[in-house]
């Protein structure tokens, strides 16, 4: 009887675990354009490793996407403008050995959050809109952004 009950519970749990949920996905062009903005930001950091990673990521996006280079240049310019503001994400780190606290820059977080600044977001939206209109897959449900 215990074995039957255990099998029933396992079947019930497995049945629930296999249930899938639909998620709203973002258009591939949006993912690429946001990725390009983040990659551009990484190329502007002081770390050679981050510069190299950003360059590789941006190159991959350029090779696989159908976005015009002029649009990507406008994104890179918006990122450069935001980067010049110098609003790097910083955290405090406790040094256990010395008992002191120091600041630590988080350039990866900074670059990821940069895509949500008004200047960069506008460049991203303009690029995505141009690509979607060019391919006649323009959907009015795609959120419009206006200059602020």
Topology (elements, then pairings):
Elements lengths: L1 H16 L10 H16 L4 H17 L4 H16 L5 E5 L6 E5 L1 H8 L3 H17 L14
Antiparallel strand pairs: 1-2
Helix pairs in contact: 2-3, 2-4, 2-5, 2-6, 4-6
Summarize the structure.
This protein has six helices and two strands; from the N terminus they run ααααββαα.
Number of strands: 2
Ranges where pLDDT stays below 50 over 5 or more residues in a row are 3-21
Number of helices: 6
List the strand order in the largest sheet. 1-2
Overall geometry comes to elongated
- Helix-strand pattern, N to C? HHHHEEHH
Oligomer: single chain
**Helix coverage percent of residues?**
55-70%
Structural class: mainly alpha
Tell me the domain tally: 1
What top-tier CATH class fits best? Mainly Alpha
Assigned CATH architecture: Up-down Bundle
Largest sheet: 2 strands, antiparallel
Q: In the CATH scheme, what's the topology name?
A: Four Helix Bundle (Hemerythrin (Met), subunit A)
Mean pLDDT: 80
The rounded distance between the terminal residues' Cα atoms is 69 Å
Cα-atom radius of gyration: 22 Å
Percent of sequence in beta strands = 5-15%
């Amino acid at each position: 009887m215990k074995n039957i009950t255990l099998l029933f519970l396992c079947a019930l749990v497995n049945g629930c675990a296999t249930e899938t949920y639909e998620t709203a996905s973002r258009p591939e062009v949006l993912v690429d354009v946001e990725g390009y903005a983040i990659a551009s930001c990484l190329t502007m950091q002081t770390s050679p490793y981050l510069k190299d990673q950003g360059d590789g990521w941006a190159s991959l996006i350029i090779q696989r996407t159908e976005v015009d280079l002029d649009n990507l240049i406008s994104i890179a310019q918006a990122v450069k403008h935001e980067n010049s503001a110098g609003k790097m994400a910083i955290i405090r780190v406790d040094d256990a050995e010395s008992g002191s606290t120091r600041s630590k820059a988080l350039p990866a977080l900074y670059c990821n959050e940069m895509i949500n600044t008004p200047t960069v977001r506008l460049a991203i939206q303009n690029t995505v809109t141009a690509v979607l209109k060019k391919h006649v897959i323009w959907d009015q449900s795609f959120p419009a952004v206006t200059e602020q």
